[in-house]
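We close this part of the discussion by returning to an individual protein. The amino acid sequence and the backbone structure tokens for this protein are reproduced below:
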Amino acid sequence: MQITRLPALTDNYIFVLWDETNRQGAVVDPAEADPVLDYLQQVGGELVAIFNTHHHGDHVGANSVLMQHFPNLTVYGGAEDRGRIPGQKVFLWAGDRIEFAQRSAEVLFVPGHTRAHIAYYFPPTTPHEPGELFCGDTLFAGGCGRLFEGTPSQMVHSLGQLRQLPDSTRVWCAHEYTLNNLKFALTVDPDNHPLQERYQQVQQARQQHQATIPSLLGVEKQTNPFLRWDSPNLQQAMNSSDPVQTFSRLRGKKDRF
């Protein structure tokens, strides 16, 4: 399974999964149709599936147009997003599995950003390859999504699920927010040396217009404050030993940053 990152809108990413054997593609969270259609024209294949993580317009905006071009494609999304995702045909619950390109992905229920948010995790098929996590707006490189429909407790639980995945997992999040996220992270975790090094690397990458996605989950565990709510340094900075309260105060600070 090949993965191609397509830029869209201002700072979105669309991910195309490609099955070379069958000349078929699936797309994760298509914000716009043209980048996807251009890609498929270049490779000469058809689109068979849309994997949506949640209902926001910058993740489902191209569903209807892509369905017009490929009437037989199947639209997947969370069961609790019923009626909110254009063209949705498959309604997924936690623990469900989807199949594509001889790979099987587990569906994770990760509410917080929205009440129905899901993620797709393709575990590695050999010891030498990474797992692939498509997490929408739940986890970002260096950050996490705003809480529009969920609670801090839900988000801590959701991020906790993702934190349990192997360090080698590649994190395909839907926005290029990394530099700003790390600027914030340094304000609450200034003595974190891996974070300091990462910020310098990301700053240089963005100056050269390079994407910072995917990131590695092991790097996120070291440097992303929203996966470190139980870190003594962050708990001290947030003046709380309670994980949910620590996270909530972090999220509040980030919302005002």
